[in-house]
Amino acid sequence: MGKGDKKSKRGKIVNGTWGARRKRKIKKRPTIEEKINPGKKK
């Protein structure tokens, strides 16, 4: 448990990796309709 542990959140931060303990924030992709009509909003 700590900086060298590959399964802990702190270990993931130190190693610079992502996984179950350290999820990435998901970027919301624009829909096809938003790409076609960028000026219109619902």
TrEMBL record:
Keywords: Ribonucleoprotein, Ribosomal protein
Basic and acidic residues bias (residue ranges): 30-42
GO CC terms, sorted: ribosome
Top-level taxon of the source organism: Bacteria
Skewed-composition ranges (Basic residues): 1-12, 20-29
Similarity section: Belongs to the bacterial ribosomal protein bTHX family.
Protein name: 30S ribosomal protein THX
